[in-house]
Write a structure and sequence with these properties.
heterotrimer; A mainly alpha (350); B mainly alpha (206); C mainly alpha (124); A: 350 residues; mainly alpha; B: 206 residues
Amino acid sequence: MTEFFQSLGLTYEAAWAFATLSGILLIALPLMLAVAMIIYVDRKVWAAINLRRGPNVVGPFGLLQSFADGLKVFLQETIIPSAANKGIFILAPIVTFTVALAAWAVIPFDAGVVLADINVGLLYILAISSLSVYGVVMSGWASNSKYPFFSAMRAAAQMISYEVSIGFILICVVLWAGSFNLTEIVNAQRGHGFGLVNGYVFNLLLFPMWVVFFISSLAETQRVPFDLTEAESELVAGYQTEYSSMSFALFWLGEYANILLMCSLNTLLFFGGWLPPLDVDLIPWFDIPGIVWFLLKTFFFFFMFSWVMATVPRYRYDQLMRLGWKVFLPLSLLFVVVISGWLMVTRYGA
Amino acid sequence: MIQTIAFYLFAVLVIASAVMVIMARNPVHSVLWLILAFFNAAGLMVLVGAEFIAMLLVVVYVGAVAVLFLFVVMMLDIDFAELRAGFVRNFPLGIAIALVLLAELVLGIGAYQAGNLDLGTPAGDAAPMLGESNIENLGALLYGKYLFLFETAGIILLVAMVGAIVLTHRPPKTQRGHQHIGKQNARRPEDATVMKQPEVGKGVEL
Amino acid sequence: MDYLAQYLPILIFLFIAAGLSAAFVFLPMGVSRLTGAHNPDTEKLSEYECGFPAFEEPRSQFDVRFYLVAILFIIFDLEAAFLFPWAVSLDLTGWPGWITMMIFLGELIVGFAYAWKVGALEWE
């Protein structure tokens, strides 16, 4: 994009600054729009599975529901409980939403369409997503109220438990791709299965890791069946109980932005990112821009998230911890050993 | 130019938040300032070209160690007024420790200034490049040249893990409610239920 | 500096994201004062407790197992941190590097097995 601004007669520095700023806005604004729409989609899918209609009043097919909700929330009063720690109470939603946005800086939407193509992109995402626990803990503690505090502690323990196995799964992918750069990881998946299909999911050793990763991403974003942090029968609304107005909405938006991030990570790490599913030039689908494939795949994973939400009952806390520590952790560790051993024999062997 | 601005931004923020860590009255605020300090230190690491170290700083220190700190200060019911009351009593000891640390610092810098200190292998442009990126270089050194030190790190981690469990683990008070999920999943409908079609007026033998 | 040019957008992005979120938090506060929606009272500002006044401090002592989870997490996170450079340098280190890491993992699996055996991973 820098070249485009340079062709308008700007110096290199000015062109770079304009390109970067417009790149950031091109990510942040559509992302917020996507979050608003995806909340609508979530409710619609959920309603369809329950044989209900879902939102259908505001705008055609209820499409404007999220915007109506947003406006309502925006005009509401912000309540800060008198017992709360004011500064941290206000800071918590800001941290949550900032972290949810910041991870998108390194996501490649298409070949070369990425804001910051850093060498350690995957580590950056791991680092940023490990920060999302702070929004939760800060809000729960600052509320100075019982339910938010319990919920925050549960959430923190849950998120760190599943982060362990996510780390090991990422290592499996990195072992195979040989790089932390997300663009290189996607390119390494071209023609991965018999030179025909794109994506690590078609690899027999990586497929189980994708299953574990998908379930872990449900747990990491606190979706059903792992939504113990806002188990309304026990904890009212979880760590958001004391929040109102836009501060409350920011937790919502951040949560959905994180869900979209996890969906796109599933796409990038296991389903070949912007590459078409088959690496065969029979049908002219190489003409379809990569970003369409990327968005389609991400949307598919979001549909899976909603599907799970509508059909699976909630876990109990001890079951959740057991699944994370006693099933996923040993399993992903075993696969690190097996995959690296296999690669030593077949690729790097003496 | 931007590098210089970024350096001073990060450096000033590191020092300012480090000062706030010890100045803050509420220990939770202290931990949050500490997190800000770690974050800016990561920024400084990026500036010197150690991107992997920068990410590790965030993943390990901010993402893990500071979470434990937060857990501890948030969940322990410490009476902070009482702790502060001990400040005056412990003040001489604190000063003594600070003086010792200062002396060590002066000695260290003095020794370094005096020269004749050969630490490690040649750095900078003279250092051999083993791989393409600095992660690969790090890996090649850590798992090639320094593998015994690395194994020692493993032992230390093992000791830390066992020590933490020994210190904090309390056996459960009740033996109630332990679910055997394997057992549950292995159970089939045939083992648990029987279909009976009793005639009217006759009981069922089980 | 091509390398730092990749990181500058991230820094700018962080600032813009933080500014955006701060605007989202503070704007409604101003707007609600203008529209008259801002109307706090004592009941509204008290903490949520199912309709009756809270009768104990919300920040109570917590189960020690939460600390244990956090400590175990640190250890496994460090283990993962050691695995990252190893995963991309296997072509340089070869079999010795691989075997080194297997011994390292073996040491930690001993610790993990111990944690499992004494029931540190159990939740009720």
